[in-house]
Design goal:
2 copies of one chain form a homodimer. With 783 residues, the first copy, chain A, is an alpha/beta fold. Chain A has 26 helices and 22 strands.
Amino acid sequence: MGERTGTVLDTGELRDIDAYWRAANYLSAGQIYLLDNPLLREPLRAEHIKPRLLGHWGTTPGLNFVCAHLNRIIQRRDANVMYVLGPGHGGPAAWANAWLEGTCSEAYPHIDRDERGMRALFRQFSFPGGVPSHVSPEVPGSIHEGGELGYALAHAFGAALDNPDLLVACVIGDGEAETGPLATSWHAAKFLHPRRDGAVLPILHLNGYKIANPTLLARIPHEELDALLRGYGYLPYYVEGHEPEAMHQVMAATLDEIVDVIGAVKRGERKRWPVLVLRTPKGWTGPAEVDGMAVEGTWRSHQVPLPAVRENPEHLAALQAWLRSYRPEELFDADGGPVESLRARVPSGPRRLGANPHANGGLLLRQLDLPDFREHAAEVAKPGGSASEPTRVLGRWLRDVLAANDDAANFRLFGPDETASNRLDAVYEVTGKQWQAQLLDSDEHLAREGRVIEMLSEHVCQGLLEGYLLTGRHGLFSCYEAFIHIVDSMFNQHAKWLKTSRRLDWRRPIASLNYLLTSHVWRQDHNGFSHQDPGFIDHAVNKKAEVIRVYLPPDTNTLLSVADHCLRSRDYVNIIVAGKNQLPDWLPMEEAVLHCARGAGIWEWASTDTEGEPDVVLACAGDAPTLEVLAAAAWLRDHLPGLKVRVVNVVDLMRLQPDTEHPHGMTDREFDALFTTDKPVLFAYHGYPWLIHRLTYRRANHDNLHVRGYKEEGTTTTPFDMLVMNDMDRFRLCIDVLDRVPGLGVTTARLRQQLVDTRARHHAWIREHGEDLPEVRDWSWPY
Amino acid sequence: MGERTGTVLDTGELRDIDAYWRAANYLSAGQIYLLDNPLLREPLRAEHIKPRLLGHWGTTPGLNFVCAHLNRIIQRRDANVMYVLGPGHGGPAAWANAWLEGTCSEAYPHIDRDERGMRALFRQFSFPGGVPSHVSPEVPGSIHEGGELGYALAHAFGAALDNPDLLVACVIGDGEAETGPLATSWHAAKFLHPRRDGAVLPILHLNGYKIANPTLLARIPHEELDALLRGYGYLPYYVEGHEPEAMHQVMAATLDEIVDVIGAVKRGERKRWPVLVLRTPKGWTGPAEVDGMAVEGTWRSHQVPLPAVRENPEHLAALQAWLRSYRPEELFDADGGPVESLRARVPSGPRRLGANPHANGGLLLRQLDLPDFREHAAEVAKPGGSASEPTRVLGRWLRDVLAANDDAANFRLFGPDETASNRLDAVYEVTGKQWQAQLLDSDEHLAREGRVIEMLSEHVCQGLLEGYLLTGRHGLFSCYEAFIHIVDSMFNQHAKWLKTSRRLDWRRPIASLNYLLTSHVWRQDHNGFSHQDPGFIDHAVNKKAEVIRVYLPPDTNTLLSVADHCLRSRDYVNIIVAGKNQLPDWLPMEEAVLHCARGAGIWEWASTDTEGEPDVVLACAGDAPTLEVLAAAAWLRDHLPGLKVRVVNVVDLMRLQPDTEHPHGMTDREFDALFTTDKPVLFAYHGYPWLIHRLTYRRANHDNLHVRGYKEEGTTTTPFDMLVMNDMDRFRLCIDVLDRVPGLGVTTARLRQQLVDTRARHHAWIREHGEDLPEVRDWSWPY
């Protein structure tokens, strides 16, 4: 587009917008450096300086520049604008703007808009007991944690979905632009519906440097960058320079045009979404040189441009000169608050960037209308007497949820490419997959409007869902179990966000992030070893117990009950692991609901310990383990009718932890009532066996606990062979019982050999015939 | 570029190349379907068909087409070409081509090039006891596991580094192209040195569909796709169509031109690297329609186009017609091997795609020349008598390693942007950061040639390193600890690759993948909660013990020793966690070497249990925990001189596991000798405390083990405050001792209160002053 030279701003507006920017820059530098003397009422002395200088200046003035100009757009057009600040190191900018507009003081009354408040603002920043140096949940107006880079644009698109009047301005640092998730998030515009969804304005902020390197996008020819952005499907605008006055004029004119183009797109004109490239010096307006080295415009301004202010009088003087260069006496009144002309340039009420209710999504959250999941119950005349595909049935309920909330437009499904593969395709009876790229007659379920979004990027799916939830809506991410590790680190950040935001009164609870992990480790028929990994649960339970919930429903009815529970919950991450393949139905619906409410319990119909203590406990968590445990229990009943076997099923994994560790944890008394204090417990678990040990090592009976689970053995083979390879098959479990119940080994040598032979026979048969023996494939609970 | 129409191939060459392609397609379909009757010598019957049809046809014919034409280039130019097949679902293609060229039979003699061998080839595919349906380590010629998508291009660039004569042809599926890692891997060309490195030819294979969706890149306008690829810095060529004869001609002509352009780039001409866009129907040459639904050219051909061959006679007949359409009688001789004219079109010896030694990197691996790390030893006159920055010293040794192996050009460092931040910057004395984008005079350490590669994408760093290692070289990835989770899933795939390839005799051992995780959880001064996560270790130890090693060197000398050990090792993933901040030196070099060799041991100089059993064991793993444990031991010696305290340090974390679980594991006898069988053990651990329980729950003294570690409490604060927040500070450890040593509590109530008060005093002081008290900051071992 080239540079614009028109003078859009009249003298007054130019003066005020520059004053606002200078004020924000002053407040930003103050946060990094000053413990005291915030208004420089006296000459700076070493004791005014923080002992540890921790923060990131480099990106900050550019962010302040963006905020100043967004405020202008908001005021002129009464626009509904929120921001996502990808260069999350720019915490000082977010705080400076929140303070200037008053939203900081509303959330934190001790940080008022006066000298005392300014001192508190400075002091809290990157200081023990204060706030981190990144944009964080503590900042009013943010839905995006800074620091780990890559997710800004996906968050912005997630926020824009179903918010037709919202404009999400998303600043993308040129460092972040190098990450994979960001590099593919540009494509998310191909899902956004021009009228039903809001708009995202990506602002690619090229300041040229990362911590210690130039950035790639700042060092390629202009025509290459232009081609890249056009290739991503955008219409690029450029604002490039460093002279403040000229930059304000160009920025204002360009933003005016961009907002007009966005309006045209939203009215249905066939235009591309705009993107703004803002090229400014790193550390803009900061010290040009320090100790003879160039700082402004280089990576040396990434963090603290003047590093030795407390010890080095020259640095101290340079800091004072730098701060005075913003002319604070023109910006702040006698009390230390922003002068009137500056306040007048701030939008009012909920239009302020720090007060936009979308950025505190809990304020807007509406309870989902949840149809009764019991209507989809599998009929269970006797345990295992029927069979169903759990996720297929769940898909029917999700269809009804989508239909019931269609008007509210506040529930969406996300997945890489697997909604149908995961057998949730009933949802396509009421909605489609949203898609704005080319459509062909042969396409199925694709639509311009739809409540499912599929893109082969787990990162984008996760990012869109996070953005959607953080702005007050509901959703579900369905994913192959093994590949959810792709977003391990994104999950980390979201869980950390939840932990922190739960402790902030002014942040209202949001809907939980719900994962449905299916096509799981035990049923990867089309795929091999590379698709087998049940370790996401292990990863998740490292995070704070207060935000993590893990469910392993053993059949269709329990899955329905768990899913309903999760969609009602707030501020958690819920992980549901459930198979998509045909599986026996164990529990009638009312029993399923009760079992899920308890989280773990004895299945008396499968147990033979009706009188007194059992000889052995067979425990299970997960659908495949439950089937094997029941088959083992039946075999034991047949072959050792005198043995008292108790079957325990765990659906809510966190029940295993002590109640002192997790809100769902059982007391020792409850735990002992299920697992006894001294009998052998064989636990068949869906994932890596040591997780069960980790959750239970403090329990009285832990020494008698023996866990079977996945131990990294697998390939493309039959379902039963997978169990055999990992020593979790029914026969192996029976052998374990014979080996572990005291006294049993002697009398059952023949039976044991029979089990060993049976395993070997199965193994050989499978390798010869390529499928499981019918006696396993068609096994059902016989009692 | 538009389509080419010239006729490059003469009749004979066209006939043969088409025959090769038909043969590969026949063999591919055969693998998916046939248990027997591989040459269709009799009419197909149900019992010839596999009971479970598992595989992916859709991408396969396109891959075969690419292989056929790569063979032509290799033969005509004696080119050194290897492939990376991103659409890893195309396992049948990789196997078909390996069988046709004879490399399959060389690795697996029972799969000879005759009818019996063809039957074995078909049978093993996606069959119990056989090989997975994805391109996997079992396939000769591959360095890339299929299935989880996103890493093909980074692997290809990693393979090309320092291999100036190598051309890596990298097929990228249009599904994979949507992933984040792939979307940013295009930029890796900006690091490749035209002459010193090899070439990568990305082949973007647009077949239009994923499992259930069209792909984004196949549904954007041509000019948008063209702009995107030019924006990524490439010169795009297009081969689009479906009519075989025309496609062969265009492909041959285009590849000829592309290889010429690559040659020109490598000679130093200022041209862009080419990219080939190959647009062909999904499931090309497969059934056009099944049950009245279009299959060829749609997502319905993604897996098994004819799903019911065994039950449905029409499907069976369709399969027979499909297979016969390739005219197998023209392709295979009486014995069932490829006919002579077909064999003549296959490159010979190591030029065959399945035999390129770069794809079995262990064949080319040369031991690194490792300078003596002892020369960088920190002098330790007494424990803690000096201090150093561990990673800074390591950087000096790495500098020497780089210098010593400069001629061999087989060692590289990779990192997102943090080599200097992680204080390894001594390496820049002998090398630079490789970079082909714009250079400015003000840049430091950037160079056209250099052995460090930094890009703000952990995915690309990891992918480049994997590709570099798999082709027989050495490397190290240094990364902020928390953000290494970004590559959790890539690590999974590499660890799985290693597990499988170790079991294949013909795959030779490769250098280990070495992680240096620094800027770790306890010292995130500039950053907050979002940068704190020590859980990568937990993630890693879920993988097979035989490939995972975890080291927590407590000081500089142990870090040097560990690093030397890791660079010598093979076929592992080594995780080293070490701080970059100033730290006391504990062990003189020879003691450090011995300690690292033992992996864990009693530090007698810090212990007071010289006679008999201790009263309490203070154990530690990690640099911050070690410092706290020593400070606690000193406090106890001062205040409770009669208490017998044993200090145990663990540097090799896997020593804690039983020897039955991990090759490095201690026997129970060894473990008990360190940790006793009945005394309280307080263990201060770098990461999440439960990992220590998980590793030790089978030990005799486990019930007495109490672990302190990171428990998700943190923000931007001082180092000591981080310890206090997570209850791992020295005072807390002393309180634990008082509380846990039997009988001590009664007599020490006053001391305990003193400790409680001291903690409170520190906490308050830090919040007031913003830094740690000097008595903690400057503490050193006093004895």
